[in-house]
Amino acid sequence: MGERKCQSIEEKQYLVRFNADTKSHLTVMDADICLNHCPDKICTIFCPAEVYKWEEIRMHVGYEGCHECGSCRIGCPHQNIKWEYPKGGHGIVFRLG
Ligand code: SF4
Ligand code: SF4
Prior knowledge:
To ferredoxins from P.putida and C.tartarivorum, ferredoxin I from A.vinelandii, ferredoxin II from D.desulfuricans. This protein is α+β, with helices and mostly antiparallel strands. The chain has four helices and six strands. Strands 1-6 form a two-stranded antiparallel ribbon. It has a two-stranded antiparallel sheet with strand order 2-5. A two-stranded antiparallel ribbon has the order 3-4. The longest helix is centred in the middle third of the chain and has 7 residues, at 31-37.
């Protein structure tokens, strides 16, 4: 009685509250590298939050959804992503569910 069921990942993600900064902490430094030298656009695959979306000729960076996992600092084969720690008080907030 009253036993709590394990939460699904979706439920856990629901408990993640975003407090997005107004300035991106993620910058794709050279758009030409993405366009002409990175056919795989692997950032659109390794980012768990789907922050990177290729839009025909440019990379859209939906930084508000970033989970701050840090993968893009090492995942981009061209070191083309500048990742700065979000300013204090911003970024992701985890709540114990
Ligand atoms: S992996 Fe790096 S170089 Fe390739 S598309 Fe993404 S940001 Fe651009
Ligand atoms: S830090 Fe992680 S979640 Fe954020 S953009 Fe990079 S890969 Fe995606």
